[in-house]
Amino acid sequence: xxxxxxxxxxxxxxxxxxxxxxxxxxxxxxxxxxxxxxxxxxxxxxxxxxxxxxxxxxxxxxxxxxxxxxxxxxxxxxxxxxxxxxxxxxxxxxxxxxxxxxxxxxxxxxxxxxxxxxxxxxxxxxxxxxxxxxxxxxxxxxxxxxxxxxxxxxxxxxxxxxxxxxxxxxxxxxxxxxxxxxxxxxxxxxxxxxxxxxxxxxxxxxxxxxxxxxxxxxxxxxxxxxxxxxxxxxxxxxxxxxxxxxxxxxx
Length: 251
Hints:
Strands 1, 2, 3, 4, 5, 6, 7, 8 and 9 form a 9-stranded mixed β-sheet that branches. The mean pLDDT is 92. The protein starts with 5 loop residues before the first strand and ends with a helix. Strand 6 (115-123) and strand 7 form a beta hairpin. The protein has 9 helices and 9 strands. It is of the alpha/beta class. The chain has one domain (6-249): Spore Coat Polysaccharide Biosynthesis Protein SpsA, Chain A.
């Protein structure tokens, strides 16, 4: 048994098409000290039955109505007992079966760091091996925040003490609570390390970009998060969105 325990949290609602892939990704990881928490928002499409089929592999499973994905993640955080905490969304998978092992080794060799992040690829919704975009990250510098740069949140692994100090997701944000959270902790001075490899595969078509209406809403919430965290304003938001173009070039 490895020393550091990691809690991986999945928040799901009516996603029977891909929830099995997410679960298989977690339980297929080589690292053996994993607490896997699935928080379901009272799904009625067969998702619950799929998760229940893995009752011997999923550490904690709750199914009750919540206020959306961030509320589900917050509920998972309240249940988590791991030294390190991560999120795997129900559409997604880890890039290989050694990702958790690789991340934990970095934590074990660097007692002073609070978090680790890496690269992310966006894939076809149908074929998760078909890469459409590549989110190549870089070493962290707090000055980059005002220039619209941010690590990919799904790749972020944090010690539980970060949540204890900075709090959870702010539910006033419906689409950009993860961006607000990252601005809060990174501007707050936590020490993070960049792991230069693809950690995470994300299917396209997420909540923030599934429609023009949601893209506009996301931009408004991003701007609100920037202002509330005193990082920047409209210029930062423009640069942030323009920077996504390189994700298509670099893939």
